[in-house]
């Protein structure tokens, strides 16, 4: 039986927020679309899960005030947001191992470290203001900034270890999820400029502001409903993308029927003929598709120098938010701890809009520390993580009713988190080409966004941008 063949104006590869936003905006402009998705769900790196009866957001979840395009789309889809819980004191663990309860927006460190941190934040803000998030490679010192790792640059700025480690946490552990020696100063400046300033990244009340009632995946689910089931094909990874076919439809996307059991069905594939294609997956997955003819050498080189980081998102659900009994917000920072960040992630019931009685903590383990966790058995890993959380927020943290680890590095169709960044020298060398179409092929994902880089907002912006470009051509 031959694979089903359909014809559309545009074929979109990837049903995450970028691909679905592009598809929806193209439909609104009067164009036909087909979305091909390898997974058996929509949402990409956003995913709502029910684990042992507890609702968790396995992937991306927060909206900050600068993420205006995402906020507008949430409103357009009729979704509701709620504020992250932040009442009470926070917890900080210093390099000496002291666990300190504090309030306000300044870590409880000595005066010299406070002064150094404020100086470094000011310096990063100054440098960030000079960088255009849409084109960081145009900075007059871009090549210089891209040739030095963020770690080495920080060493040239201060010999205060605690200040240096804390500043690094906000970029390396919290955002790029790579060791600070693995990315450049220019890449760090892109990260902060994409959020408006470095000060925004160090302010958890800004960067982790609101959540979508019912989970961030509802954005993709809402878009998918508007696009229609007839235009979205799940469980079909695109294996071949032909882009120089004869006739009015030069694109031919060939997708394989891939069952949830991991078994391919050779008789259930789909072929989509189209005028244009949008690759709406992260750059590390471009090579999963065979392009016929092949892409040019610049594309091949560029994609090999973009990689995702690694982070474990820890979900621990308790019968009540016990930390609030002690006047704690649930927010914890500890740059040298196994779990470097913790936040109150208690959910609201989508049906009633009321906060759940159970309490949820979310924590993050980044880069090399995450590597270490996967050398342990499942039970050893759980014990180590909960012990690290308990050291910060109390012994009751050791006894969750539900415990789950989001391991995006093991996801076949993601292979890392949160998003891609370049290795040293890569951003200034290839960044200017990452949006360039190749014939009828366009690119859209949060990994190559300017504003909203690495966030759902960036995915939405990229989807809208490419949809506008193609609408003008169709």
UniProtKB/TrEMBL annotation:
<dbReference type="InterPro" id="IPR001613">
    <property type="entry name" value="Flavin_amine_oxidase"/>
</dbReference>
<comment type="similarity">
    <text>Belongs to the flavin monoamine oxidase family.</text>
</comment>
<protein>
    <submittedName>
        <fullName>NAD(P)/FAD-dependent oxidoreductase</fullName>
    </submittedName>
</protein>
<keyword id="KW-0560">Oxidoreductase</keyword>
<feature type="domain" description="Amine oxidase">
    <location>
        <begin position="18"/>
        <end position="470"/>
    </location>
</feature>
<dbReference type="InterPro" id="IPR050703">
    <property type="entry name" value="Flavin_MAO"/>
</dbReference>
<dbReference type="InterPro" id="IPR002937">
    <property type="entry name" value="Amino_oxidase"/>
</dbReference>
<dbReference type="Pfam" id="PF01593">
    <property type="entry name" value="Amino_oxidase"/>
</dbReference>
<dbReference type="InterPro" id="IPR036188">
    <property type="entry name" value="FAD/NAD-bd_sf"/>
</dbReference>
């Amino acid at each position: 039986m031959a694979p089903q063949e359909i014809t559309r104006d545009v074929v979109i590869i990837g049903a995450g927020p970028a691909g679905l936003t592009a598809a929806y905006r193209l439909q609104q402009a009067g164009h036909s679309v087909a979305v091909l998705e390898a997974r058996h769900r929509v949402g990409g790196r956003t995913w709502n899960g029910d684990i042992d009866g507890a609702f968790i957001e396995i992937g991306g979840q927060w909206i900050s005030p600068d993420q205006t395009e995402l906020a507008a789309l949430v409103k357009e889809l009729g979704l509701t947001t709620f504020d992250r819980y932040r009442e009470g004191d926070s917890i900080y663990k210093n390099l000496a191992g002291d666990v300190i309860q504090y309030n306000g927006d300044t870590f409880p460190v000595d005066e010299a470290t406070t002064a150094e941190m404020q100086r470094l934040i000011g310096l990063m803000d100054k440098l960030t203001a000079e960088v255009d998030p849409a084109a960081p490679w145009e900075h007059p010192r871009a090549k210089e900034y891209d040739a030095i790792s963020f770690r080495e640059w920080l060493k040239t700025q201060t010999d205060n270890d605690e200040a240096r480690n804390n500043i690094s946490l906000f970029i390396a552990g919290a955002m790029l999820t790579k060791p600070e020696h693995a990315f450049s100063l220019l890449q760090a400046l892109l990260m902060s400029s994409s959020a408006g300033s470095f000060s925004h990244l160090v302010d958890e009340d800004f960067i982790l502001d609101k959540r979508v009632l019912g989970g961030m995946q509802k954005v993709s689910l809402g878009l998918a409903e508007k696009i229609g089931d007839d235009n979205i094909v799940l469980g079909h990874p695109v294996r071949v993308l032909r882009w120089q076919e004869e006739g009015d439809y030069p694109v031919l996307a060939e997708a394989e029927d891939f069952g949830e059991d991991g078994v391919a069905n050779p008789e259930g594939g789909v072929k989509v003929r189209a005028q244009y294609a949008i690759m709406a997956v992260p750059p590390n997955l471009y090579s999963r598709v065979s392009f016929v003819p092949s892409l040019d050498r610049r594309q091949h080189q560029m994609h090999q120098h973009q990689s995702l980081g690694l982070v474990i998102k820890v979900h621990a659900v308790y019968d009540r938010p016990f930390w609030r009994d002690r006047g704690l917000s649930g927010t914890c920072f500890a740059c040298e701890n196994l779990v470097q960040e913790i936040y109150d992630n208690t959910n609201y019931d989508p049906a009633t809009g009321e906060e759940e009685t159970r309490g949820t903590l979310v924590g993050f383990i980044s880069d090399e520390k995450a590597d270490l966790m996967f050398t342990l058995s499942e039970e050893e890993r759980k014990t180590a993580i909960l012990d690290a959380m308990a050291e910060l927020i109390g012994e009751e943290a050791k006894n969750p009713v539900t415990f789950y680890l989001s391991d995006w590095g093991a996801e076949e169709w993601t292979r890392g988190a949160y998003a891609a960044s370049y290795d040293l020298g890569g951003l200034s060398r290839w960044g200017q080409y990452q949006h360039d179409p190749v014939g009828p092929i366009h690119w859209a994902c949060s990994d190559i966004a300017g504003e909203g880089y690495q966030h759902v907002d960036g995915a939405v912006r990229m989807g809208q941008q490419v949809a506008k470009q193609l609408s003008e051509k169709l």
